[in-house]
Amino acid sequence: MILVCRHLEHQPGLVKPTCHIPVMPEAVQEVLQPARGGFFVDATLGGGGHAEALLAASEDVRLLAIDRDMQAIERAKERLAAFEDRVIYAHAPFSALESLVAEHHGGPVDGILADFGLSSDQLADRDRGFAFQQDGPLDMRMDQSTQKTSAARLLADSSEDQLETWLREFGEERFSRRIAHAIVHQRRFGPLLRTSQLADLVERTIPSGRGNIHAATRTFQAIRIVVNRELDEIDAFLHATPPLLAPGGRLAVISFHSLEDRLVKVAFRNEVRSGNFKNLLPRGEVATPAEVRRNPRARSARLRGLERLTPEKG
């Protein structure tokens, strides 16, 4: 069965229930081994599914739960209410992990998880502007409380050359120049303010996407990455995280496209070369066909794992 999220009109004080299905939960547990207990970090809390599994694995697990999306934290608090005395919540980007661990723990960490994908909750909420399947404001900010530049503002203020570079590098879009020109041309007639406007513009500008891929998929990915500085965030996270691990501590990272996975693969390779870390999944691990049938979003997920060696293993 595929869980479908439906848009709910926002009401003050209403926390929309999560409809996010955690990706590769059993494989994540195998990498992190939370049954041994200790202090863990979920750097991308999202719907709270992975966090719940970590906390349920042992009563000795304490968790620092981080997300830059305050709505995600509010949803997860309800889901994790039974573990309330063992969870610390932090509204922050995961690039701030080093300072957050120092503030809330002050010692080495036994396990860290990062899931770089968008949650189904974010995609289903048309008011967030992440998806082109339904009309909504062209926003795409992960943290609407602190980020000033929305996708609409970015498209209004950027040059054609900037847009082309972003679409080519972050969307891996072969028609990047054509789309960038169309966006700038459209500004003569009015701003792009809605997701449907941008999706329709891309559809009119380039050939239809291959297979089941919508023509606007790569454009939306590229603009979202720029709005949220996602690759910079990932790079900062990957540099700061390994030194935080205790001997025997483990890091699990789930990526969803080649740009993310390339950063993870290179970072892990460099840590292994230092002689202090072991790559637990040298080729990465992907979701099983059965999981993909249950949760189509798992199709592009790749899990990688890293362990800090103990002196005995070193």
How does the SSE layout of this entry go?
Blueprint: H1 25-32, E1 38-42, H2 49-57, E2 61-67, H3 70-79, E3 87-91, H4 97-104, E4 109-115, H5 120-124, H6 151-157, H7 160-170, H8 176-186, H9 195-205, H10 217-228, H11 230-240, E5 245-255, H12 258-273, E6 277-279, E7 285-286, H13 289-294, E8 302-308
Parallel strand pairs: 1-2, 1-4, 2-3, 4-5
Antiparallel strand pairs: 5-8, 6-8, 7-8
Describe it.
The chain is α/β, with parallel strands linked by helices and 314 residues long. The protein has 2 domains: 25-121 and 231-308, 3-Layer(aba) Sandwich (Rossmann fold); 126-228, DNA polymerase, domain 1, CATH 1.10.150.170. Helix content is 40%, strand content 15%. The protein is built from 13 helices and 8 strands. Strands 1, 2, 3, 4, 5, 6, 7 and 8 form an 8-stranded mixed sheet that branches. α7 (160-170) packs antiparallel against α8 (176-186). It is globular. The N and C termini lie far apart (45 Å).
